[in-house]
Specification:
The chain has 318 residues and is α/β, with parallel strands linked by helices. The protein has 2 domains: 195 residues, FAD/NAD(P)-binding domain; 110 residues, 3-Layer(bba) Sandwich (FAD/NAD(P)-binding domain). Helix content is 26%, strand content 27%. The chain is built from 7 helices and 19 strands. The strands form 5 sheets. Strands 1, 2, 3, 4, 5, 6 and 19 form a 7-stranded mixed β-sheet that branches. A 5-stranded parallel β-sheet has the order 8-15-9-10-11. A 3-stranded antiparallel β-sheet has the order 12-13-14, with no helix packed on it. A hairpin with a 4-residue loop joins strand 13 and strand 14. Helix 1 packs parallel to helix 2. The longest helix has 32 residues. The protein is elongated. The two termini are 25 Å apart. The mean pLDDT is 94.
């Protein structure tokens, strides 16, 4: 139960890191709570050579690859993490304890959705947020953008590339500026004022958006920007707390350098827990970057310990 690296989180970032570490002959354990953010989606998009693969299939392929190199992947929920000497003690929900020299957290994020009936039920299907993850699938459809923050205009500009039938529902978003009104008019984007009350669902598909006054605007897809919150609870006991995202999108784990190294010695982060805007491929790449940095860090420590042992006089007993 002693590992070079324990990875908390078994998504694209965690499994990519574990694969890299296992191939470097590091003892690595992945603890997977089985709560992937993209579970509702039909497919993963923008992942070269795997475009359209179901999320669960991608993860199963990753687990198989990690295990082929001797890495371990275990379904488990982490209860607490504590510093023990130069390493860490990780307690699982069934009271098992594993020890690690280094810790990589890839627990992802949670999408906090607006409280509009129908949104959660259709999330990841015809209620979406990312033009790169879902835009092609809703191309040329009647699409609405639900304004809940200043990010709505950004989404309008990106989804306008994908469809000419686009409506902006002002909902609870900020008041549009004169410049934004002009931009919307120039791009032929219709603006619908008022609070959205619910979504209209017929035969298991989105057919419209119902306003508080009872008006129904026919739509086939709805774009929203959820508040994104990093799953960082496991790190609070180590003093690593969420901080505001630079784009105002929610919270992320900081500070961390380009490899995911945090201010807590021995702790790295990767994937959406560190970068809220990262797609699956970017999350996987960040896992690889963290793994290579951790392996180098361990190699330096291994060498330091070997030199100390080498310098001891023959027959010396500590």
């Amino acid at each position: 139960m002693h590992y070079d690296v324990v990875v908390i989180g078994g998504g694209a970032a965690g499994l990519s890191a574990a694969l890299q570490l296992a191939r470097s002959r590091r003892a690595v354990l992945v603890l997977d709570a089985g709560e992937p953010r993209n579970a509702p989606a039909a497919g993963v998009h923008g992942f070269l050579s795997r475009d359209g693969v179901p999320p669960a299939t991608l993860l199963e392929l990753g687990r198989t690859e990690v295990r082929a190199y001797g890495g371990q992947v275990v379904a488990a929920q982490v209860r607490t993490v504590a510093r023990v000497g130069d390493g860490f003690s990780v307690t699982l929900d069934d009271n098992r304890v594993v020890n690690a020299r280094r810790l990589l957290v890839t627990t992802g994020l949670v999408d906090e959705l607006p409280d509009v009936p129908g949104v959660r039920e259709r999330w990841g299907r015809d209620v979406v947020h990312c033009p790169y993850c879902h835009g092609w699938e809703v191309r040329d459809q009647a699409v609405g953008v639900l304004a809940t923050s200043s990010r709505a205009m950004h989404q309008v500009l990106l989804f306008r590339q994908l469809t000419s039938d686009l409506v902006l529902f002002t909902h609870t978003g900020p008041v549009l500026t004169e410049e934004q009104v002009e931009q919307l008019a120039a791009r032929d984007v219709r603006v619908v004022e008022g609070i959205v009350d619910s979504l209209e669902i017929v035969d298991d598909r989105l057919t419209g958006v119902r306003l508080h006054d009872g008006t129904v605007v026919a739509r086939q897809a709805l774009v929203i920007m959820p508040r994104m919150v990093a799953r960082a609870q496991v790190l609070t006991s180590l003093g690593l707390l969420p901080a505001a995202h630079s784009l105002g999108m929610g919270e992320s784990i900081v500070p961390a350098d380009g490899t995911g190294r945090t201010d807590i010695p021995g702790v790295w982060v990767a994937g959406n827990v560190a970068d809220l805007s990262a797609g699956v491929m970017a999350a996987a790449a960040s896992g690889v970057a963290a793994a290579t940095a951790m392996n180098a860090d361990l190699a330096i420590e291994d060498t330091r310990q070997a030199v100390a042992a080498y310098r001891k006089p023959a027959g010396h007993v500590a």
